[in-house]
Amino acid sequence: MTKKNIVLVLVCFFSCMVFFPSCSTVNTVERETPTGTRQPIADKRIITDVTLNRKVSIVGLNEGATNGGFLQIQIEVLNLRNSMQEFSYNIEWFDKNGMLVSSPSIVWIPKQIEGRETMTITAVAPATTVKDFRIKLIENVR
Predict the structure, then answer these.
(1) pTM of the model
(2) Quick one: pLDDT at residue 22?
(3) pLDDT at 71
(4) Are 123 and 91 in contact (CB under 8 A)?
């Protein structure tokens, strides 16, 4: 190999290292002191099946309101395994009397989460009369 070919091979190698990093890790950048403050919920209204609970865990749950007065929730989910996990979730909304509020979208929503990844699921209540909720998670079985 000539000196020119060696230099060309090295340039290609280092270019690949810079532009095509490994897909096995994710770098995350966030503020040291967040400007937004979480308002965690002490009463976690979460129902999961036993097998999913060993694979996917809820690590955070926040509650707030939109500008229009709708209840909004944010669920932080962590995959405890190294491999991708598939699950579905459903959110039931309740009024101030604990009555189920009918929603046109009471369906199971499928999700998948990569190994050791954290994901955030955000949902907004279907009506301003909603004051509470219940979250159900089940493992997708093929």
Answers:
(1) 0.68
(2) 47
(3) 97
(4) yes
Q: Which two tokens stand for residue 23?
A: 């897909």
Identity of residue 116: R
Q: Which of 109, 121, 125, 108 is nearest to 72 (CA)?
A: 125
The CATH number of the domain holding residue 47 is 2.60.40.3230
Task: Answer yes or no: are the C-beta atoms of 115 and 79 closer than 8 Å.
Answer: yes
- CA-to-CA dists, residue 39 to 36, 49, 57, 60, 136, angstroms: 10, 26, 19, 10, 21
Strands 56-65 and 46-48, by their bridges, are unpaired
CA quadruple 114, 117, 118, 123: dihedral, nearest 10: -10
The answer to whether position 111 is within a domain reads yes
Residue 61 lies inside a defined structural domain of this protein:
yes
More confident residue, 136 or 42: 136
**Burial environment of residue 77 by CB neighbours within 10 A (0 to 12, 13 to 18, 19 or more):** buried
Amino acid at 10: L
Alpha-carbon distance of 25 to 119, in angstroms, equals 15
